[in-house]
Amino acid sequence: MSAKSNRSHWTAAGTLYYIQQAKTGMPTRIPLLPKAITLLDKYVDHPLCYNSEKLFPVSSNQKMNAYLKEIADICGIRPVLTFHLARHTFATNITLMNDVPIETVSKMLGHKNIKTTQHYAKIMDKKIDNDMAKLTIKLQEKKTKDTAMTTYNYTLITK
């Protein structure tokens, strides 16, 4: 099956890409964001992609990492960019930090067990801080609402 035919499923949110995870063998359905679709479309007719299952015209993960390292060096980016770092960034900064449930992230990453995904969430101190700030506001709003709804009956006692 070619990369081109792999991307033939459309939804209201964009393209769905179906793959079988190399490491786990798990079939995975990945909804793609518009930027990803644009990038994939750029290479769909490239000779190295057209008749293979490759999405990018790169011979191997090792070669992709070498290209990413070169780009990072040119741009002065630290740490060194790798495909794994991109996957980790997607899981943490793009999905979990934007309130995508961990179960959804786990499924998109093709993890058999959610515990595998939970290590991504452990480093999310900023997410914890944001969630607690939201909870604080929510509780304050509830307290204000409850106070506003409470009526007080006072009896004036005179001597």
Topology:
Elements: H1 3-6, E1 9-11, E2 14-20, E3 27-31, H2 34-43, H3 47-50, H4 61-75, H5 83-95, H6 102-109, H7 114-121, H8 125-149
Antiparallel strand pairs: 1-2, 2-3
In short:
The chain is built from eight helices and three strands.
Secondary-structure class: mainly alpha
What is the strand arrangement across the widest sheet? 1-2-3
On the 0-100 scale, what is the average pLDDT? Answer: 78
Distance from N terminus to C terminus (CA atoms, Å) equals: 94 Å
Form type:
elongated
Count of individual helical segments: 8
**What is the rounded Rg?**
24 Å
Low-confidence stretches: 1-12
Largest sheet, in brief, is: 3 strands, antiparallel
Task: Name the helicity range.
Answer: 40-55%
How many distinct beta strands?
3
**Beta-strand residue percentage:** 5-15%
Structure description:
The chain is mainly alpha-helical and 159 residues long. It folds into 2 domains: 1-55, no CATH class; 58-125, no CATH class. Helices cover 55% and strands 9% of the residues. Strands 1-2-3 form a 3-stranded antiparallel β-sheet. A hairpin with a 2-residue loop joins β1 (9-11) and β2 (14-20). Residues 1-12 have low confidence and may be disordered.
